[in-house]
Specification:
This protein is mainly α. It has 3 domains: 107 residues, Potassium Channel Kv1.1, Chain A (2-Layer Sandwich); 50 residues; 117 residues, Helix Hairpins (Orthogonal Bundle). The chain has a 4-stranded mixed β-sheet. It is found in: Membrane. One of its GO terms (cellular component) is dendrite membrane.
Length: 360
């Protein structure tokens, strides 16, 4: 029995976090490897051999949730701690904030909606719209699996599940490169609109030209049976992709194809310098902002208040005679000098006020 008690005491660990002592077993701390608590040894500076405990000057409320995570495998968010502090504590203990339970994330989302100053702007934000669409596709998939599984073309309806890929756009909050790209497209919206307009105009014109050019001569291998097929060919040619699935066979059609390729190159190349200049500008601004020093909170120096003078106490630098009077000295005191300067300034002001009217 004593042997078992000794083994239990050897496997027990005492953790003093912020003045609150916690007791657990070493096996419990080994459940989550590659963390600070899983690497505790007596050689660390946090260990106190006298009290036989490890001391950490950290937040005790957050550590209670961290220790419960080692015990139960579920990490919950404390309600009396702000988000940045909780993330800082998790990073200190070597844990990831993504390991927080989904119930806490739902509560966090609700708090974001309640505390947002503008509910309409919060609902219509691009990140939340992506969440709405991805969630809607999930429910559509569930409905189709339950009610439309017997349909022959049900697989076509499951195409909506691909919308979940749009959640990748939420990475723009964490990637500065994607933010720069989005800002570049926003600043170049006019140029991009002009590019699309000229592309559509050229596609329609060259699709009609190649359709009628291939019909001028008798050609049994004509690929352009309609103008919509010519639209596909004109788009591929103007963007210089060139699949080769449709090619003109007549000389006039080849001439039209050459003009279409040249027009596509010129149309696409014209707005590119403007887009590149906008990208360079935003990229340089981002790099300059990253190099700026972080703003630190200014701490005002503490001003020592002067202690009140007692009737028998002399000022600094003046010895006390014990009688409550200052020692006699031939040098004028500071108070008498200030009074003399004030009198001289007052006399000068009075003299100016008297002399100026007479001169006038």
């Amino acid at each position: 029995m004593n042997l078992m008690n000794n083994m239990d005491s050897e496997n027990r660990v005492v953790l003093n976090v912020g003045g609150i002592r916690h007791e657990t077993y070493k096996a419990t701390l080994k459940k989550i490897p590659a963390t600070r608590l899983s690497r505790l040894t007596e050689a660390l500076g946090n260990y106190d051999p006298v009290l036989n405990e490890y001391f950490f000057d950290r937040h005790p409320g957050v550590f209670a949730q961290v220790l419960n995570y080692y015990r139960t495998g579920k990490l919950h968010y404390p309600t009396d701690v702000c988000g940045p502090l909780f993330e800082e504590e998790l990073s200190f203990w070597g844990l990831d904030s993504n390991q927080v339970e989904p119930c806490c994330w739902m509560t966090y989302t609700q708090v974001r909606f309640i505390s947002s100053p503008s509910k309409l702007r919060f609902i219509t934000s691009s990140v939340n719209i992506i969440d709405y669409i991805a969630t809607l596709s999930f429910f559509i998939d569930l409905i189709l699996q339950r009610f439309a599984s017997h349909l022959e073309n049900a697989d076509i309806l499951e195409f909506f599940s691909i919308i979940r890929i749009m959640r990748l756009f939420k990475l723009t909050r964490h990637s500065s490169g994607l933010k720069i790209l989005i800002q570049t497209f926003r600043a170049s919206a006019k140029e991009l609109t002009l590019l699309v307009f000229f592309l559509v105009l050229g596609i329609v014109i060259f699709a009609s030209l190649v359709y009628y050019a291939e019909r001028i001569q008798i050609n049994p291998h004509n690929d352009f049976n309609s103008i919509p097929l010519g639209l596909w060919w004109a788009l591929v040619t103007m963007t210089t992709v060139g699949y080769g699935d449709m090619t003109p066979k007549t000389y006039i059609g080849m001439f039209v194809g050459a003009l279409c390729a040249l027009a596509g190159v010129l149309t696409i190349a014209l707005p590119v310098p403007v887009i590149v200049s906008n990208f360079t500008m935003y990229y340089s601004h981002t790099q300059a902002r990253a190099k700026l020093p972080k703003r630190r909170r200014r701490v005002c120096p503490v001003e020592l208040s002067r202690p009140p003078r007692l009737p028998g106490q002399a000022g600094p630098g003046v010895c006390n005679t014990g009688s409550g009077k200052l020692p006699s000295s031939n040098a004028p005191s500071t108070g008498s000098m200030d009074q003399a300067i004030r009198r001289m300034n007052a006399n000068r002001t009075i003299t100016k006020d008297v002399i100026l009217p007479k001169m006038a």
